[in-house]
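Holo model, s-citryldethia Coenzyme A. Inputs:
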Amino acid sequence: MADTLTVTDNRTGKSYELPISHGTVNAMDFRQIKVTDDEFGMMVYDPGYKNTASCKSRITFIDGEKGILRYRGYPIEQLAERATFLEVAQLLINGELPTREQHEKFVEEVTVHTFVHENMKSFLEGFRYDANPMSMFISSVAALSSFYPEAKDVLDEECRRAQMIRLIAKVPTLAAFAYRHSQGLPYVYPRNDLSYSGNFLAMIFNINQPNYQPHPTLERAFDVLFTLHADHEQNCSTSTMRAVGSSQVDPYSALAAAAAALYGPLHGGANRMVLYMLEEIGSKDKVPEFIKKVKNREALLMGFGHRVYKNYDPRARIIKKLAHEVFEITGVNPLLDIALELERIALEDEFFVKRKLYPNVDFYSGLIYQAMKFPIDFYPVLFAIGRTVGWLAQWREMLLDKEQKIARPRQIYLGEGARDYVPLEER
Ligand code: SDX
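Output:
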């Protein structure tokens, strides 16, 4: 049997042999299908890209039916358990786990690039005291591009690498500065004696303690959370990073666009919506009433459902376990009981079972963040810190992919045909 698809156009009776590779056909092979030679040729229509591969990638593999997630072939469960976030960053970007020497060099490079230009502080001062921290984060990442004009040289590997180090190192600083601004607290500068996650927690929580040390359990929890959020193949924000990056704009501007996509309540903004939902439900006994609202299409069960996972999101399983470790230190989040009851009902209710709606990465993460006293609106920023590594790995892979071109989809035009302008006095 040949690896081809035979397509017969019943309008003409003509048949076409389309080659199949990796279980897909190339959309451009449909363009030859025409009724008359002067036609543009056939396209494929796929709103929301539910069945369209936009690229070939070697970074992250997801099996949605089986609930499998692997970074460069390594199961997420093993990486969450045994790797540090910066090890995972190197794995995602370079394709291999680093040697000890490579890792120590990378950690050193990231550590010494955590500062941002002092002008960034006055930039952030321009925001109202109650500005949403994700708006501040997106804006300040975009503003960073103005400090590194050389970053436009996106086709140079050394230049790309320098910007990736800067972004990985600086996003926690920008995130922490946005947090401190919203809390009316002075900025805490990065420290070189702490780990990546430890330094982030110090910049967030240190109130005038010269030798502040983050709690090791919380420090490790954040390293795992950053790892779990690091990449997820061609999700909305990563596709945005690739599309914006395909115009060869600098990575700061592309990453700001990706963070803006992540901000949406259907994507990385869902983690904050879960907490608002749990607070709206208010108590365990009100859960059945809320489930009824969801089934009547009056509300979404935030933190549930996924375009790819039609099984339990493996990250949600790990975060649920991590929550109990964090609650040992912070005390149990009182909303946990509501979340567990929602999950219990949803996993047995036909409405959710039929639609294969399971908890996703955003369902439990917010409970941890709230228990650690982060404001709800800060949660998408926490997601963005981890995902920065995935956005950059995918951005680099896109630029190295010879098959990639500037992203420019087509459309099905259903508008007006040609017509002449009518002067105002005649309308
Ligand atoms: C992330 O893509 C990624 O990988 C994203 C992410 C990553 O790491 O980058 O995993 C991170 O964004 C996780 C998703 C966080 N979002 C939420 O938790 C918001 C709530 N979820 C839904 O909005 C929804 O499930 C989506 C957006 C996540 C997925 O939407 P799809 O794939 O377009 O699915 P759909 O809307 O076609 O849903 C299929 C059916 C529909 O019902 P029918 O019209 O078929 O009767 O399921 C229903 C939907 O109405 N449905 C839900 C639901 N999610 C889907 N009904 C109630 N509550 C929900 N949460």
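Residues 157-183 form the longest helix (27 residues). The chain has 17 helices and six strands.
Archived with the compound record.
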